[in-house]
């Protein structure tokens, strides 16, 4: 099985995961960033992945930030997000691996994709 080491992006100011609801997705940084991402919540009972996905990071996260099906999990704890910039050819496989690894609350696994193992958050 193919394997890749990806860089999961954190806030460079404090080395923490980003707060989805406070993230400025209109920042110039997001104009051309594409890859895979993970959205989860952190609460008193632990953490749970809500959604994994891929594509244009800024656009996809803005869609999720405006989606009440995702933001309702904010009642359980702070919504966190990270992403990794990866090439288009690897995204389906990485997303499949993330889905299999985290069993997110929302979304479906791409059935045709052969998983590509990556380092988890």
The total domain count is 1
Q: Could you estimate the helical fraction of the residues in percent?
A: 10-25%
CA-to-CA gap between the ends? 20 Å
The global form is globular
Major sheet attributes: 4 strands, antiparallel
Number of strands: 6
Report the mean per-residue pLDDT as an integer.
95
Number of helices: 3
Biggest sheet strand line-up: 2-5-3-4
Strand content: 25-35%
C-alpha Rg, in Å?
14 Å
CATH homologous superfamily grouping: GIY-YIG endonuclease
Low-pLDDT ranges: none
Give the SSE string. Answer: EEEEHHEHE
Secondary structure class reads alpha+beta
Classified by CATH, the class is Alpha Beta
CATH architecture: 3-Layer(aba) Sandwich
> How would you classify the quaternary structure?
single chain
CATH topology (level 3) name: GIY-YIG endonuclease
Give a concise summary.
The protein is 23% helix and 29% strand. The protein is α+β, with helices and mostly antiparallel strands and 121 residues long.
């Amino acid at each position: 099985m193919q394997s890749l080491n990806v860089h999961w992006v954190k806030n460079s100011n404090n080395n923490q995961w980003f707060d989805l609801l406070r993230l400025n997705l209109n920042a110039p940084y997001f104009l051309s960033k594409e890859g895979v991402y993970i959205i989860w919540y952190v609460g008193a009972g632990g953490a749970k992945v809500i959604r994994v996905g891929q594509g244009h990071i800024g656009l996809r996260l803005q869609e999720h930030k405006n989606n009440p099906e995702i933001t309702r999990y904010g009642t359980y704890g702070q919504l966190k997000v990270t992403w990794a910039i990866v090439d288009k050819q690897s995204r389906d496989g990485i997303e499949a691996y993330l889905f299999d690894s985290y069993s997110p609350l929302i979304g479906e696994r791409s059935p045709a994709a052969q998983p590509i193992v990556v380092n988890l958050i």
